[in-house]
From TrEMBL:
InterPro entries per UniProt: Flavoprotein-like_sf, FMN_Rdtase-like_dom, NAD(P)H-dep_reductase
GO CC term (a single one): cytosol
Taxonomic source organism: Prauserella marina
Lineage of the organism: Bacteria, Bacillati, Actinomycetota, Actinomycetes, Pseudonocardiales
Protein name: NAD(P)H-dependent FMN reductase
Pfam families: FMN_red
GO molecular function, one term: FMN binding
């Protein structure tokens, strides 16, 4: 089901039981959507600032962008070639992630910083999407990486690691498109990222840049 905000763009929710709705044919949406962006959030915490930032991105997406946040990264098994072997049935969460990624024109990764690098859940998703080797769902598609972190550098180390991993996985990483938001515990102690004008403006620029690159690549 689609909803139309009085003050914002089209918002396409996910189903709480089955996860995100699949990208739909344009004719079924009743709107002209030309670019499909899949967001992956590297935090599993229910109150995650990065998850909130991803929700803000959905609300800020231009009318010609179908931006979805993939749910269920925490349910993915760790990448294992014994599981990902020809002729063997793949776990349902792997199939769902790969199908959503295959349909996407670009990716927006949201990464907190754990011990100076990206969380294992985000790296694991990239690993699954990098296979089959040379034919992964991220291959040649634009990827932007943003994030919120507790530290004063806003998780830049983690984001750099995510960009490196995505690039090796075959993605066309947008190295110049960045958003690092520091000292999250203080900045968002009483404020949602959606109410931060600076964050909204910067995130809008990120989504627009990714949209433009994805539209050219599609």
């Amino acid at each position: 089901m689609m909803t139309q905000s009085d003050s914002g763009p089209l918002v396409l929710p996910y189903d709480a039981d089955s996860g995100p709705l699949r990208f739909c044919p344009l004719s079924a949406l009743g709107a002209t959507l030309s670019v499909r962006i899949l967001a992956l959030v590297g935090s599993l915490r229910s109150g995650s600032h990065n998850r909130r930032l991803a929700d803000v991105a959905v609300g800020l997406a231009p009318a010609d962008v179908d931006l979805r946040v993939h749910q269920g990264l925490g349910e993915l098994p760790f990448y294992n070639e014994d599981i990902d072997a020809e002729g063997l049935p793949l776990p349902a969460e792997v199939i769902r992630l790969r199908e959503s990624a295959k349909e996407a024109d670009g990716f927006l990764l949201f990464s907190p910083e754990y011990n100076g690098t990206m969380p294992a859940v985000l790296k694991n998703a990239i690993d699954w999407l990098s296979r089959p080797f040379g034919e992964g769902a991220m291959r040649d598609k634009p990827v932007a990486v943003v994030g919120i972190a507790l530290g004063r550098f806003g998780g830049e180390w983690a984001q750099d690691e995510a960009r490196k991993a995505a690039g090796i996985a075959g993605a066309a990483v947008l190295d110049g498109v960045k958003l690092s938001i520091p000292v999250s515990a203080t900045r968002f102690a009483e404020t949602h990222p959606a109410d931060d004008a600076e964050v909204r403006a910067q995130l809008t620029e990120v989504v627009t840049s990714l949209r433009d690159k994805a539209a050219v690549a599609a």
